[in-house]
Amino acid sequence: MKYRIKEKVLSLHGAYQIFDENDNECFHVKQNAVSLTNKTHLYNMNNKEIAFIHRKVMSMHSVHYLEMADGTQGEISEKKLFQLHDNYEVEGFGWQITGDIFGHEFQIVDAGNQIIAESREAWFSIGDLFIVDIYDETQTEKVLAVLVTLSLIHRDREAAMHNTSSN
Description:
By secondary structure, the protein is α+β, with helices and mostly antiparallel strands. The protein has one helix at about 140-165; strands spanning about 1-5, 15-20, 25-30, 40-45, 50-55, 65-70, 75-80, 85-90, 95-100, 105-110, 115-120, 130-135. Helices cover about 15% and strands about 45% of the residues. The model has no long low-confidence stretch (mean pLDDT about 80).
């Protein structure tokens, strides 16, 4: 199944919409306006919370926690401090993310190296973050929670780079 994650352009804080391949909105994301831990919630269209995502406050590198509605918990962190390509682990899910997170071109693979999902950048569209093909539909909610988390990591990196370059 193919999904498109789109950021609401005129939102004061992180708000995303997730559309299926038929352009039906099927999930939405809301983020607390002011939060040190970047509290983010993924909901289905019945406003049932699917996942709660929050960032570790003090860390040498980016660490985010995912709490799924079914009780499954995951943690996304960088595998190495200095690397040429992004390389993240999703502890608790047994997944790895490899590729270019900053360019929205990456794969999510399970412990057996089977590709669960592939993401690519959405070109020529205002507010679109990325398009994802999910090959294991039983993992859809977890994959979408991971993708939202990666978009938060991406946004944090951009803000850090902007702050560094403006000083």
